[in-house]
Design goal:
It contains 1 helix and 5 strands, in the order E-H-E-E-E-E. Strands 1-2-3-4-5 form a 5-stranded mixed β-sheet, with no helix packed on it. It starts with a strand and ends with a strand. It has a single domain, classed as Roll (Spermidine Synthase, Chain: A, domain 2), CATH 2.30.140.
Length: 60
């Protein structure tokens, strides 16, 4: 299980693959089904859609 949060490096966040088990700082966890990375101005948004009908969002 990979633990992710605001303090995770960009490399760690970009190395997450579909099928990986992840967990965030709040305790939300699951298996990654879809990954979407958006860049807005000076911010990157990492969306990890989970198989159990949830999403983990990390802003960097």
């Amino acid at each position: 299980m990979k633990k992710l949060g605001k303090n995770s490096s960009d490399r760690d966040l970009e190395n997450v693959k579909e099928g990986d088990a992840i967990k965030d700082d709040t305790g939300k966890q699951g298996e990654v089904e879809v990954i979407e990375i958006l860049e807005r101005k000076h911010e990157k948004q990492y969306y990890y859609k989970l198989k159990n009908d949830g999403t983990i969002l990390i802003l960097k």
